[in-house]
Amino acid sequence: MREAAQEPEWKAQLKKEQPADYRIEGEVENVQCLAASGDQSKIPERYIRPEIQVDPVLNCEEDGELPVIDMSRLLHIQHSQEEVMKLGLACQEWGFFQLMNHGVSEEVIERMKCKIQGFFQLPLEEKKTYVQKPGSVEGYGQAFVLSEDQKLDWGDMYLLVTQPPFSRNLEFWATNPPTFRPVLDSTHWSWRGSKAFC
């Protein structure tokens, strides 16, 4: 008999760092529906962020280039320290980055993008089948909603744990579009076959 898989260390750490109820009960307005309505008079107060108009993300005098991290340099003994520093700065200053030389083919990436777009084009009721549960960021919705009056980002998300495979919670993996799961799984095997998979 197979033993139950142990929770990944990063997942356990996330639970320790976040309050137990870091996702509040209740409905959070769906951003896609709000944007599609085109009626700005119906935008909930929690989505109105006047500070963003005053404080732009990029200043014209600043270097506005998206950080690029080279996976092959991260894995190379001579260049890894420099690339790790770039990665740290990208995470601290931007919160995201572009990854290159990761070993996943453009074809696999495009198939995955197509399936994700297909998921977001589903009717809201169907997407709600995969809604996040209290105390979790996995699934469809918005993460880190701490209070009823918190300002929210203009973006719905769909977060799935894909690595390692034993950590997957298939309850959140969409069955529509019908090829969503196989394409996501093929992405895993693309990573396995690349030198970037560690």
Automatic annotation (TrEMBL):
Domain Non-haem dioxygenase N-terminal: 66-169
Source organism, top-level taxon: Eukaryota
Keywords: Iron, Metal-binding, Oxidoreductase
Pfam families the record matches: DIOX_N
Lineage of the species this protein comes from: Eukaryota, Viridiplantae, Streptophyta, Embryophyta, Tracheophyta
GO molecular function: metal ion binding; oxidoreductase activity
Protein name: Non-haem dioxygenase N-terminal domain-containing protein
